[in-house]
Amino acid sequence: MKTTLPAASVLLALCGLAFADDPAGLASKAPEEITPQAQAAIDKGLSYLASIQGSDGSYSLEGSGGNPGITGLAGLAFLAGGNVPGRGKYGTNVQKCLDYVIKNVRKDGFITAGTSRMYEHGFATLFLAEAYGMSGDPTVKEKLGAAVRLIEGTQNPEGGWRYNPVPMDADISVTICQIMALRAARNSGIQVTKRVIDNGVKYVKKCQNADGGFSYIAGSSGSGFARTAAGVCSLYYAGEYDSKELQKGVDYLFRTMKGATTGDAEGHWHYAHYYAVQAMFQAGGKYWDGYYPAVRDFLVRKQNPNGSWSGIGYSPGNAYSNAMSLIILQVPYRYLPVLQR
C-alpha cells in the first residue's frame, strides 16, 4: 500500500508544522534547544534506526520478531524528524512502518502480529493517527478508525484498560497509552466518543496520590516518576489544562526529575522520559527550561559510537530504546501533531 500526500504542504501547515524538504539538513532550522551535539546525535540515531529495520518494515520486541507497537514507535521517531510517508530522507522507512502496521490490523481492529498486548495496540494506533494527520490517506483512516473502535469497546467499567483487549481490570500505564491514541485520532479527524475519554480521565485521576504523584492502579499507594509522567501527559492530552490534578502532577515531576541525568526512573528510563518530555513541553516555562537540557545532554552522553542507545534501565529491545531516545530528543521540532500546544 503506497500512501500519497494530497496537498502535503497545506495539510502540514494546518497541523502547525513547518515541513522540511530536506529533513537531514534541519540543523540550520533547529530550535535553540537542539544544540549542535544533539543534532549530531539525532542524525546518527536516525541513520542507525533505519539500518535495523526489517525487510518487511517491522521492528522487533526483544528480538522476538516483528511487533506493530515497536514499529509504531520507530515510525513516530522518523515522523518526529520531519519525515512523512514517502517523503524526506527517511520517508521510505516511514512508509514501510506504516505498511507493516496496517497489514497487522485485524478485522476487529486489534493491531497485533500474534503476541501484541494493549500497550502495543496503543502505540501502533498513535502512529496511525499521526501518520494520517500528516498524509490524509483513506486506507490509514479506515484502519485507524477500526483501531479506535477496539479501544472504545474494551474500556473497563472503571474507565481504564489493561494488557488484553477485554473490558476487565485496568492500570494507569496501559490506560494512558489508549488515551494518547484516542486524542491523536480525534485531532486527526477521527470520531472518538467523548464519554470514553472522560471516563479514562476519571480513572487516571483516581490514581493520583496526595503528593501529586500517581500510583500504578487506582486505590493503591506509592507514587513514581514514570507513571506520574504518563498521568500528567494524559491529562494534558485530554484537555485538563487548568485542573489541580495536572498542576500537582507537574510539580511532582519537577521535584523528582533527577532521573533525567542519573538514568534512574524506577528502571523504566525510556518509558518515563517519553512521557515526561511531552508533559514538560506542554507545561513550558521553568518546567521545560529546567528539564529538557538535562535529558538532552544525558542522551547525547549516553549514545554509542554507532548511533544507538543501550543500557539505560530496562529496555525491551534495541529498537525500543533507540526509537524512544529519538522521540525525546526531537520534541523541540514540534513536527508531531500531538505535540502542538
Q: Give the tally of β-strands.
A: 0
Shape: globular
Kindly report the average pLDDT value. Answer: 87
* Ends distance: 32 Å
Strand-residue proportion: under 5%
Q: What is the ordering of alpha helices and beta strands?
A: HHHHHHHHHHHHHH
Radius of gyration: 18 Å
- Number of helical segments with 4 or more residues: 14
Largest sheet: none
- Unreliable stretches covering 5 or more consecutive residues: 1-29
Briefly note the structural class of the backbone: mainly alpha
Helix content: 40-55%
Please, could you describe this protein's structure?
- With 341 residues, this protein is an all-alpha fold.
- The chain has 14 helices and no strands.
- The protein has helices at 8-14, 36-51, 68-79, 91-103, 118-135, 138-153, 172-187, 194-206, 225-237, 244-255, 259-262, 269-283, 285-302, 318-330.
- α3 packs parallel to α14, α6 packs antiparallel against α7 and α7 packs antiparallel against α8 (194-206).
- The longest helix has 18 residues, at 118-135.
- The chain is globular, with a radius of gyration of 18 Å.
- The relative contact order is 0.14.
Concise overview:
By secondary structure, the chain is mainly alpha-helical. It has 14 helices and no strands.
Question: Can you tag this structure with a few keywords?
Answer:
mainly alpha, disordered N terminus, 55% helix, 341 residues
SSE arrangement:
Blueprint: H1 8-14, H2 36-51, H3 68-79, H4 91-103, H5 118-135, H6 138-153, H7 172-187, H8 194-206, H9 225-237, H10 244-255, H11 259-262, H12 269-283, H13 285-302, H14 318-330
